[in-house]
Each structure stands twice: as structure tokens, then as C-alpha cells.
Amino acid sequence: QKEVEQNSGPLSVPEGAIASLNCTYSDRGSQSFFWYRQYSGKSPELIMFIYSNGDKEDGRFTAQLNKASQYVSLLIRDSQPSDSATYLCAVKRWGNRDDKIIFGKGTRLHILP
Amino acid sequence: NAGVTQTPKFQVLKTGQSMTLQCAQDMNHNSMYWYRQDPGMGLRLIYYSASEGTTDKGEVPNGYNVSRLNKREFSLRLESAAPSQTSVYFCASTPRGGSSYNEQFFGPGTRLTVL
Question: What is the distance between the alpha carbons of residues B97 and B78, in angstroms, rounded to a whole number?
Fold first, then answer.
């Protein structure tokens, strides 16, 4: 079983609609959850992190966490063509000296103009 | 403040050649990481260094060695390159160990082709 699983996509969403990206993880000791965005040919950049159950909103982005179901999602409201990218889900245990995080393979998102 | 820098940006090697990928950060971060990214495989950890003077293997260490030269610099060496090592290599760093939230900051990447 993969530690962090994401649908590879591509996920095609019309401009202005809500894009919903999903991620499941296997390690119940995971405590911090991250969403990175990666444009083609570029390096990943952090867009959201969450560590409490529930929702966390930042502008057009909302991260949702359900630890009981081992599920984390990212919603992008009012999707724009500039949101077209690969979105990487990552998880981390608390207290690790090494600060390693485990990445999923990413979901490719394509916003249709 | 340049963040995380990597050199070179592109490199082509022949099978059996050796090379060192350089990484430096100017953010006074403790932990540094080397990843490789292949199509459909996501980011896979090669080696990491939790602090100056320590290094540990990640998920895919075979064929690589690392050196944490000082707090700023973390290099990745391919002793005898193989075509299977064709990939994009990212270096990353994070501020401190053991906290609940630590963003990893990534360098721009090195695109390596082994013929």
C-alpha cells in the first residue's frame, strides 16, 4: 500500500468552477499535511498546510482534513487557467528529528478556459 | 536572500561518468534533502541531512553519495552514472527539527540526462 495516494489525473475543470483534489494516507501517525503546487518545469511550492481536523481557508484555497478517514483534500474555488499545475499532497509525523515528509505522486489539474 | 540554489541546471553525462550536484541555502536551515522526480513517480527522497554533520538514506539511495559540507551546503554525488539515473533532481531545506509545521523550500532543480 502506497503511503500517500492521489489520483494522477488529469482533472479537467471549467474556468470559474470548483476544483477538488483528494489524497489518502496510510500512516495514522501522520500529523501535518501539506499541499504543494508544481508548474511544469518548475520546483514545488507550498500553498497550504493543515494539522487539525476540519477546514482551513486561505483565499480561494480550502484544505480539508479528516484524520479518522485518513483523508485530506484541497478545494480551489473560482478556478483560473493559472491554477493549471500538478498538485502534490505530502504528510509528516510530528516529532521526527529529520523532518521528512512523504509525497504523493501528484494530481495534474487542467483548468479549461 | 537567494533561498535554495542548485548547480548545474542541466547536465548530460555518459554512462560511467561521475559528477557532483551542488546545493546551498542561505536561510540558516538545519535540515536538507535530495529528491529525484521522474514522470509518474512523484518526489522520491534519496538522502537527507537532519543537521550539520549527519546524513541518512532515504527511499532510493543506491548509486548516490552525499556530503553535508557545512550548514549551508549539501552535495549529491553520482560515482558511476547509469541511464536509470536520468531524472530531475531537487534539493530542499527546512528550518528546524521536530516541529509540527516545517515547510520545505525547494531549489530550481537539476535536469540530468545519462546516455
Answer: 28
Residue listed under C-alpha cell 542548485: B6
Distance from CA of A96 to the nearest CA of B (A): 5
How do strand A107-112 and strand A11-14 relate by DSSP bridges?
Answer: parallel
**A78 phi-psi bin (left φ>0, alpha ψ -120 to 50, beta other):** left
Work out the pLDDT band at A98, boundaries 50, 70, 90: low
Is B90's Cβ below 8 Å from some Cβ in A?
Answer: yes
One digit per residue, the tens of pLDDT, for chain B of length 115 reads 789 999 999 999 999 999 999 999 999 988 899 999 998 788 999 999 988 889 999 989 999 999 998 999 999 999 999 999 999 999 999 886 555 567 889 999 999 999 9
Give me the sheet containing A54-58, strands edge to edge: A4-5, A19-25, A71-76, A61-66, A54-58
Pair A111, A80: CB distance under 8 Å? yes
pLDDT at A46: 92
Spacing of C-alpha A98 from chain mean position: 22
B59: left (phi over 0), alpha (psi -120 to 50) or beta: alpha
Among A49, A96, A100, beta carbon nearest to B45: A100
